[in-house]
Amino acid sequence: MASISLESVSKAYARKRVLAEVSLDVAEGEFVAILGPSGCGKTTMLRLIAGFEQLDAGAIRFGREQVASPGRSVPPEKRNVGIVFQNYALWPHMSVADNVGYALKVAGVSPGERRRRSVEALATVDMDMLADRSPADLSGGQRQRVALARCLAARPSVMLLDEPLANLDVHLRAAMEREFSAFHRRTGATMIYITHDQSEAMALADRIAVMDAGRIVQFARPRDLYREPGSEMVARFIGNGLVLPVSDLRADARPGHVEVDVFGRRHAVRARRGQAPAAAARLSVHPDDLVLASDEAGGFDAEVERITYRGSHIEVHFRPRRAPDLSLSLHAPHDRAIEPGARISVRVGDGWVLPDAA
Amino acid sequence: MADLAAVMPGERRQLPALRMGAETLVLILLAVFVTAMSIAPLTRLVLAALAPEGVPDLSHAWDVLARPKVFRAALNSLHVALLSTVFAVAVGGFAAILTVHCSMRLKAIWVFGFVLPLMIPPQVTALAWVQAFSPTSPVLGLLGLALTPGSRHPLFSSWGIVLLLGVYNAPLVFLTVRAALHRVPADLSEAARAAGAGRMRVICTILLPLARSGILAGAAIAFVSAIGNFGIQAMLGIPARFPTLITLVYQTLNSYGPAALSDMALLSLLLSLITVCGIAVANWLGRRGDLRVEGLGRPAEIDLGGARRWVEAGAWLYLITTLLLPLSALFATSLVKGFGQELTWATVTLENYASALIRQASIRDAFATSFVLTIAAVLILGVVSLFLAYFLSWRRGPVVRALQMAAELSYVLPGIVLGVAMILFFLKPLPLVGVSIYGTVWIILAAYLSNFLALALRPLLGGFAQVDRALEDAARVAGAGFLQRMRDIVMPLLAPAMVAGGIIVFMSALNEIQVSILLVSSSARTIGPMIVFLEEGGSSTLAAAVGCLMVLIVLLLMSVTSLFSSRLPKGALPWLD
Ligand SMILES: Nc1ncnc2c1ncn2[C@@H]1O[C@H](COP(=O)(O)OP(=O)(O)OP(=O)(O)O)[C@@H](O)[C@H]1O
Ligand SMILES: [Mg+2]
């Protein structure tokens, strides 16, 4: 296993900048998820790390060895990386065991040893009984397991996964998520995992890198990403985040907290230590942080726009009286009878002042 | 920044010394192959035509091209090519509509019969027609329809050439139009029916306009094929004293030998120019107002109603006259001792077959040479096209694109032009070896490799388009190098496409006449030109036997491939629906 570091990596396709000075340090054995909107350059970054694409500027290191710099690149077959592809990429003309053992065959391992290690790798994903099947005769989840075993059998120093669960249905995803988690604990592999799915990233990763338009905008632990987003893009992207305009920001007695004016009501919210007072700021909140106040004085005035039934709770869409063009939502328990058009009072239970707007 | 570079000299050493990987090496070999087989000979042809003495000399070119004989031949070429294209488009288009949209009984058999002429060597077709419609025809004679003896053969005329070229090329148009019609979604014609349009109106206002690009593409192919069809033009045109460019090239070599090479180069260039213009015009017409519709599923059904019986009868009558009648005449002729002899139980003999297969060493050798050359071409082109298609599909760059264009050019230009280019390029002794391959089988092999590379390439390009490139990436991260990936992953995945390409190359090389007609010598003969030589030498019955044997080989090959058609890529072989 090895650590991976990207140093100001840039990449352009036909003059179009796809990655702009991306730096990322992944520790040995760490599980890092890459999250970001479609087309932001996630796959390109993964292919650069694997060696399928050449970078234009910067450098990539595995451990202490530099594997890529402009004009010099260790080819993929020499990098000892493992990849799990979105569509599995199992070779249809080989059996499951041959697929898993191919890297060993290339490395010149004897057939007996190869078979033993293939079956061993298949056993870690509970697929050793199906070693002699053809990939065409497997279900989607089984194929993904074989792809995982194939990656594992080669004992790569780095494992790269590009949306490995995107083609599976919801139930299978949950099962495979557990599988990945256990797999990472067992092998201690350094893993870089690309996904569209935030909850998947939150559940699996030690740290998450959020990308936007070819840059890494924040690289942090899942909890920090949710509670303390570094920019408005991250705040909106993670957990259906909302961003509210607030004013008259003043220091609070507690460290790490400030007092702000939200649509005419004073609230105490979290902020960076050493946050300077300001006339205006932007506040990051999530629908769960907004609560219905029991009395009118408890929160700011708003009008209910519509209600969506969500099973465990109801989602209330509303507009603040002070800012009628802003559409927000909160989660309320079923027992509150709320009608569209009703006046409500909303309190901000928890919020985070975005540092860049302050 | 400059200072920084100066204090870090160690950075320099990180750059690798230029080490050539297997991939680069293969690319270089491909470039050398295509250059030697296509680019260099064709360049040599242009140089020989426009600068015969090494300096550009257009006055010489003008002298040759302005000769009345050349002018007439060029007009004749255009005449037969254009008219036969009209014929082929009409018949092929009608057949496509009939088989795609109409309910017709025994459709699969009819399609097989309709496409079959494409697989039969054109000189065999010509021979069969000549024998079927000759005054002493054994078959027409049985029917009591024989022409009056002593009259001129009706097919030895420009109309005969037009008719045969049209019949030969109609399946080409049929195949492209059929593919285009299959892409027209059924609901478009159903909407027209719902709007009150009748059968004919739907065909004329909906189906044909939407299949226009397919029709024009088919017309271009038919035109190119007609211009370069040596077998029919020579078998009918030479006795009819109706010279075309292609027969003029052939007769120039026959009368003057390699001394007239620069004249032949000029004629070839003119022929190439007409070919390229034909393709360009069709492309231009096709692109104007091209309507692209893509639909999948079942094509619209047009009910023929009461007309069905008549349409079916016409369709089968066409097959009987264009296929059954000529082939049975050919067969009948091959069974008698002398041409014109009546076929009865008393005259029937297998003498001709015995001569062809056993007694006549030259025919036996021609068969053997053709087989060996064909198999060699199939094997070499299989490997070359696999690598070339790989680069074209997954590592596209300017070099491989240029190689593909050269391969395509060698394919669309008339085979006889390629023959002239090959003579010009290979006439001088090869460097290193010091001997010339002109007059040996090697020059024929080189011409095959040049001519048929594009044919072998096509199914493979289609195959690569259907393979997920991640399969190769996965092998790369498993540590496999270029050649290992090709052997373990790419080749097994593309084996069906390679086989399909091999079958097509096999058929084409075995049947061809136009490529090798200029290259054969007494020591190196292929079977294609043999029929022309036998017919010219007056051995019609022997020529018929050889023709029957070739048809037999084609039929055998087609039925063998039909047996494992499910393993081959869909649509790769024209006779399999
Ligand atoms: N080979 C290529 N040539 C040109 N442009 C490319 C190429 N590959 C990717 N791009 C462009 O680079 C940008 C980033 O692509 P990339 O595949 O890395 O996005 P992504 O984040 O993986 O998106 P998704 O989530 O949809 O998979 C896109 O705008 C894409 O169009
Ligand atoms: Mg992607």
From TrEMBL, chain A:
Gene Ontology terms, MF aspect: ATP binding
What InterPro entries has UniProt attached to this entry?
A: AAA+_ATPase, ABC_SmlMolc_Importer, ABC_transporter-like_ATP-bd, ABC_transporter-like_CS, Mo/tungstate-bd_C_term_dom, P-loop_NTPase, Transp-assoc_OB_typ2
Q: Which UniProt keywords apply?
A: ATP-binding, Nucleotide-binding, Transport
Judging by the UniProt lineage, the source's domain of life is Bacteria
Quote any Pfam family the record assigns. ABC_tran
Entry keyword ATP-binding = yes
Q: Which residues form the ABC transporter domain?
A: 4-238
Q: Which family does it belong to?
A: Belongs to the ABC transporter superfamily.
Q: What is this protein called?
A: ABC transporter ATP-binding protein
UniProtKB/TrEMBL annotation, chain B:
Annotated InterPro entries: MetI-like, MetI-like_sf
What's the protein's topology in the membrane? Answer: Multi-pass membrane protein
Gene3D superfamilies with a match to the protein in the record: MetI-like (1.10.3720.10)
Q: Which residues cross the membrane?
A: 78-101, 108-130, 159-181, 202-227, 264-285, 315-336, 371-393, 405-427, 433-457, 489-509, 541-564
Q: What keywords appear on the UniProt entry?
A: Cell inner membrane, Cell membrane, Membrane, Transmembrane, Transmembrane helix, Transport
Q: Tell where it localizes.
A: Cell inner membrane; Cell membrane
Q: Where is the ABC transmembrane type-1 domain?
A: 74-282, 367-561
Q: Report any Pfam family annotated for this entry.
A: BPD_transp_1
Organism's domain of life?
A: Bacteria
Give the family from UniProt. Belongs to the binding-protein-dependent transport system permease family.
| The protein, known as | ABC transporter permease
